[in-house]
Structures are given as structure tokens and as C-alpha cells.
Amino acid sequence: MSANPTRVLIVDDEENQRLGLAGMVAAWGFTTETAADGQEAIEKLATFPAHVLVTDLMMPRMDGFELLRRLAAQGGGPPAIVITAFGNIETAIATMHDLGAFWFLEKPIEPRALRVLLERAATQQRLAEEAERLKRELSYQGVLGELVGRAPAMQEVFSLIRQVAPSKAAVLITGESGTGKELVARAIHSLSPRSGGPFVAINCAAMPETLMESELFGHEKGAFTGALERRAGCFELAQSGTLLLDEIGDMPIATQAKLLRVLEDSRVRRLGGKGELLVDVRVIASTNKVLEDALRKGQLRDDLYYRLNVFHIALPPLRARMEDLPLLVEALLRDLNRKHNCRVVDLGPQVLEQFRRYHWPGNVRELRNALERAVIMAGDGMIGLGHLPPSFNRASAAPKVEEDGGVDQVRLPLGSTVGEAEKILIQRTLQHTKNNKTRAAEILGISLKTLHNKLKEYGAAEAE
Length: 464
Description:
- The protein has 19 helices and 18 strands.
- The strands form six sheets. It has a five-stranded parallel sheet with strand order 2-1-3-4-5, sandwiched between helices. Strands 9-10-13-8-14 form a five-stranded parallel sheet. A two-stranded antiparallel ribbon has the order 6-7.
- It is elongated and about 95 Å long.
């Protein structure tokens, strides 16, 4: 027998017959369990996933017919060998055809025949399990962790993740907001030798400089007003694991210098502390900014950039891999149905077509948000146009920015940088919305806070 013996459940109301069969089958190297009737068999199968079922037909409480019917209704149980008394052969054959039994044996049972049938049934079950495994693998082609994509650009991302994960190298992940940068970081962590350690993420744009240092490096009691107790920072919390520095381009310059020292020495000093702590942490950084612009403007230290940019992974926007849209929708619907206890099966053809025409400025995050509302609205069945967010429908139909002979478009001077193009797009969108910043942020697929930060940045640049 194999290292993982075949599991056999024997169901018979006659105790001597049941125990005798179990002893004989166990002597052949199978793992056995017994049940006195169909009801007990169903209960046993919940904790003893049998490869083969050997069952009598005539039993009290729940007979073999009802047992097989129940298992068939649940999607089919293991291959069943039916034991039948002399004179019930026609019934046994009918059971095979109608209820999917594997074979039947007359009482008294001939041991050699039972052993041959057990081995054949076990082989059939193993083949069925292998086919199901291959089917699952095929259905999940284009999936890595929580990332989904069959487009060449995403397959390249998957390849880079698999290559860098086993190493200790720092990784820089770039891409627009909503493309899944944190999911890439989590995939790298889960495929790395550090997968058993913690994964800690910190958003460098979400807090002021003083709090940022405390979050990163920790602090001692009394280090500053309000520091009532010692607190470990993210580097300590991520010990033997992975630390994601999200939106690294927004980290204050003074903090960048302290971070660089930690990366070079692998030592952390808590705020207000006297000693240093040795840390073993893999650092991954991500940003939706064009870091070359941040370097040119002095917003990012050159030495920190080169220290973090050992291995670069660039995520494509959703509009650049629209062939992945059906696969993404399927994966997101499965997750959202589970989250909200809904039974939405698919998108209506008009919805999918509208999705294909849409620009998706907010990328996969925007797609998920649109689908989440639609799933809640629909509840079950198909998602129709009426289930989509009103802002989505308006954004789909609205002029993108300015009209030119009936065609809405943004004109950019040849040679414009990405930063300059971004500025022009924001300014033209504000013109289109008559300076309605909330509406402009919706069209651009960014948060209102991000829009205000961009405008503040442009104002500061013009004042220089």
C-alpha cells in the first residue's frame, strides 16, 4: 500500500458482519471506519473522508438507498461498493445505474473479489481527485496569491515575483493607485523563506513626520509628550518578516535619512532610546509617483532610491490589460458574494461592454468598488446597468475633458513629462467640472485629498 493508505468506510447494521469486514480490510493495509446505518455514515464522512464506501442496502433508520441518494444530492460521495443479499441482484444493478454505485457483491462476500474491487475503486477515486486538482490548477492559471491576470504584462509581473521572492533583495513596486501594489508585496512575502514571519505595512503618506519616526522605529516611555509607555516600531514588529513602506515618495526628507541608516546597518534606535536593536527585516517599497520627478525636485534622496530600487516591479494599469477584465470580474464576484452572502453569477452583456469601454482611472480598486455596490444592489442573479454606481455611469458618458470637433480629448505638447501630463490633465478636468473638485476627483479616479495635495504641490512649484 502507499504511504497514505486508502480510507474505507464500512456501513452495515449487523455488528458481526461490520466488524469482521473492517478487520479483514484493515489486514490488507487499508484504513477503516465503520457505521451502523446511513445516518451514522453521513456523520462519519464529515470527519473521515473515505476514498471508498462499502455499504449494505437494507438497514434501519437510513438504508443504503437513501445514503447514496443523499451523497448524490451533495455532489457525489466516494465510489460505493454495494453489499446485497442473494435474490436482490436486480435491485443492486438498478442502484448502480440510478445512484452511481461502483459495483455490487452478494453475501456471503468473497474476500478476493472484495479486495480487487476496493483497489479498483480506490484507483478510480485517486484519478478523479487528480483530475479535479488539474481542473482547479487550470481554472487558476493567471492567479498568483490574490493577484489575477493572464495578460502578458501581468504574466511578466508574476515571473518577476517568483524570481525575487526567494532572495533577500529590496524591491521597489511602482504603479498607479489601485493597481495592487500591496498585493504584489504580500505575494513576494508569501513565496519567500520569510513567509512564516510577520508582514507589516505602513503608509508613509498618512502621518506627520514626528509620528512617522515613532511608527517606524518605536519609542521609549517619556520620549515625547504623550509617550506613556514603550512602543515597538514597524521594524521590530516585522522582525524575521517583511516590511512594506507604501507611498515611499511621500516620506519626509529627514525621516528618509534615518531610514537609510537602518537599511544600511540593520539596526534601529527607538526615539528616546540609548541602545540599538539588531533587526532582520526585508524591506519592500511602493509608490504611485514617478520617482524620477521626486528625485529631480529633491523630494526623495538619491541614495535611498538606489538602496530601495534593487529589484523593480512595475504594475500595468487596468486599461493596459483589458483582456483580464472577465477573469478579474469572476474572481472579485466570488470574493464579494462570499463577503456579503450574495449569489450574483455574472454581469449582463451590456455591463461587460460598458466595463470594456470605460477608462478605469482607479484601476482594479475602482473595479472592485463598482462591483461591490452592484453585488449588494443585485443580491443574486445578474448585474445590470442599474446596479452600477451613478458616478460610474456619468463618468462613462461624460466628456473626458474638452471638446474638439465633437471628440473629447486632452492635447499634450510633444515631449511632455509624465508629471507635466498629470498636471495638464488635472487642470483641464477642473475646467470641465467648473472647479468642482469632488467631481474632478471622481473622474480622475483619485481621492479628494490626493487632488488637494496635487494642487498644493503645483501652487508651491509656481511660487518658486
